[in-house]
Amino acid sequence: MTAHIIDGKAFSAKVQQMVTDHVTAMTADHGITPGLAVVLVGEDPASEVYVRSKGKRTVEAGMNSYEHRLDATTSQAELLALIDHLNADQSVHGILVQLPLPDHIDSALVINAIDPAKDVDGFHISNVGLLGTGQKSMVPCTPLGCLMMLRDHHGSLSGLNAVVVGRSNIVGKPMAQLLLGDSCTVTIAHSRSKDLAAICRSADILVAAVGRPEMITGDFVKEGATVIDVGINRIATPEGKTRLVGDCHYDSCAAKAGAITPVPGGVGPMTIACLLANTLTACARSHGLPEPEGLTA
Ligand code: GUN
User: Fold this and answer.
1) Which of 12, 156, 205, 208 is the most buried (most CB within 10 A)?
2) φ/ψ of residue 59, rounded to 5
């Protein structure tokens, strides 16, 4: 079988355009412009790249971007004071605290200090509970992006067997909740699962979010299944360079799958597009406006 390649780059551009159109209309009709505040503590180079990219895409979508760059020695109390300030600021509809935070700061405490209505990462304990009980919440960006791609490819997901490999709070667990919400039969597996390959072979939808380069190979994939690869791993090549690979061994999985997301260019670009979508959703909700269609769970 030749797998259909799910083009996350093209799809994320479509999502970003939908967000931009909504923002344009919101600003024109209501004089409201969504605002996203991103907080970065310290100088982690990878985080710097993400934050710059988030700011750029936010502005491209017509929204206001507020960047708060704090010194690595910033105290927890100072960070909490900034969160309080952003919670109260009416021009800020979304707050994202870039992780990881320095060791002297309690990340859970900081995340749970964010107003849940502005928690565009969907990491606040209230949003986790709301999602887990099938109520309206802010949904973590990466699993939301995966859900959008799956809905776009399949239409209805109802009744399909979904296997999520990985049990993180950021991807695995919320992904499983979202698939359950779309009436899939969901299995959460992980690196310690007994006979992982057999579990994966039961999947119509296989989501790999285990954080191990190329761990999922073609013999884990049922003929015709849809494979969503969340992994982004940098590995060394024999030539002494590096390259990005997913959690799936692409060639062997693509030989079996009906559809597959590549790495790079699959799930990755969807994450920031969904961050913009969540900021728009948070803004619409805060003003009692209708939620943007096709951009929420
Ligand atoms: N660091 C790496 N990915 C993310 C993310 O999605 N959200 C936050 N807040 N920090 C991150």
Assistant:
1) 208
2) -65, -40
CA–CA–CA angle 263, 266, 269 (5° rounding): 110
Q: Provide the number of structural domains found in the chain.
A: 2
Q: Does 76 qualify as catalytic in the annotation? A: no
State how far the Cα of 157 lies from the Cα of 202, in Å rounded to an integer: 15
Residues spanned by the domain of 62: 30-116
User: Are 218 and 103 members of one domain?
Assistant: no
Same structural domain, 181 and 258: yes
Q: What is the pLDDT of residues 158-194, one digit of tens each?
A: 999 999 999 999 999 999 999 999 999 999 999 999 9
pLDDT of 269-294, one tens digit each?
999 999 999 999 999 999 999 999 99
pLDDT, tens digit, 9 for 90 and up, residues 83-131: 999 999 999 999 999 999 999 999 999 999 999 999 999 999 999 999 9
Could you tell me the CATH number of the domain that includes residue 62?
Answer: 3.40.50.10860
Query: Looking at ligand 1, which residue's alpha carbon is closest to its atom 9?
Result: 98
The continuous run of DSSP H or E covering 85 comes out as helix 76-88
Task: Say which CATH number the domain at 257 has.
Answer: 3.40.50.720
Q: CA–CA separation, 1 vs 118, rounded Å?
A: 44
Q: What distance lies between CA 115 and its chain's CA centroid?
A: 19
Residue 54 is a catalytic residue:
yes
| Residues facing 228 on adjacent strands | 207
The active-site residue, picked from 115, 119, 121, 247, is 121
